[in-house]
Write a structure and sequence with these properties.
It contains six helices and 13 strands. The protein is of the alpha+beta class. The strands form two sheets. Strands 3-4-2-1-13-12-10 form a seven-stranded mixed β-sheet. The termini are close together. Strand 1, helix 1 and strand 2 form a beta-alpha-beta unit.
Length: about 280
């Protein structure tokens, strides 16, 4: 089984159309079973999506905004179908970003989506608040495993600190009493290189970093350069050196064959201000 997680920075990204084309080309080669996406955007005042863009969609019951014609995951799924890749997908609008985008989370699955679960991580669900955070989970048909796409805040945020969001995520996911393995995939805004903060909190809570479990791995760096959200938290020198802030965690010691960074300009073209994480594991 192959899992991919990536913060898409969609629509906002420079040369967005070209990068989306590159993404689709290489997804056809990689063919992950599950794709977890963060920063999955649409323009808030765009016309509503035509019905064909709804194909393959599984509603999660928390869609507070209509699907628009430029919705990133809907367009990606539609183009995948043209290539013969039939992915099922679900999208959760989370908040208003940059005062113009409906920013959300999405998961694509090769198998039909049997169940979904939405977890509010922030203190409230104010759609106009840029700090609002959720997690979105799916269970594919014929499986007991659950896969969550996650985009958490920062350790140092005094209003919405990482620790509170993590505790809510862990508590609510465990409360579901999922029978299979649980994979938390996404942008955790927690560098693996920094001690005593978010990364160590997750590891100390009993979760396993699939990067460390992997028999074969690379550097794991998923952000290299100065990006939004980190300009006032790390020096430019540190950011240019690179951070491993995008992770795939599992509640069990899964058998991970390989973990590698993708869409980083070496393995595949860069498509976002984050690189992706790709793992191969025993099903």
């Amino acid at each position: 089984m192959r899992l991919l997680s990536i913060n898409t920075h969609s629509i906002i990204e420079k040369n967005y159309d070209e990068k989306t084309k590159n993404f689709l080309e290489h997804i056809a080669k990689l063919q992950p079973d599950i794709i977890a996406m963060q920063e999955v955007n649409q323009t808030a005042d765009f016309p509503e999506a035509v019905p064909v863009l709804q194909n393959g969609r599984c509603r999660n019951g928390k869609e507070s905004r209509h699907l628009k014609a430029d919705n990133h995951v809907a367009l990606v799924a539609a183009e995948m179908r043209k290539q013969g890749l039939d992915y099922n997908w679900t999208w959760l609008p989370m908040k208003l970003g940059y005062s113009k985008y409906d920013e959300g989370l999405a998961i694509l699955s090769k198998k039909p989506i049997a169940e979904t679960n939405v977890v509010l991580l922030s203190k409230d669900a104010d759609y106009g608040n840029w700090r609002t955070r959720y997690a979105l989970g799916v269970r594919p048909a014929g499986m007991e495993d659950w896969f969550y796409t996650v985009h958490l805040g920062w350790w140092t945020d005094e209003v919405e600190p990482f620790e509170g969001q993590w505790q809510k995520l862990q508590r609510e996911v465990i409360a579901q009493k999922h029978e299979g393995r649980i994979f938390l995939m996404g942008d955790f805004n927690s560098p693996a290189e920094v001690r005593g903060e978010g990364y160590d909190l997750i590891a100390g809570s009993g979760w396993h970093d699939t990067y460390l479990l992997a028999k074969d791995k690379d550097s794991g760096v998923t952000v290299q350069g100065v990006i939004d959200g980190w300009r006032d938290k790390l020096s430019e020198e540190d950011m240019l050196e690179g951070m491993r802030i995008d992770h795939i965690w599992c509640n069990e010691q899964a058998d991970i064959e390989k973990s590698r960074v993708c869409f980083n300009g070496e393995n595949e073209p860069v498509i976002s201000d984050h690189y992706g994480v790709l793992i191969d594991l025993e099903d």
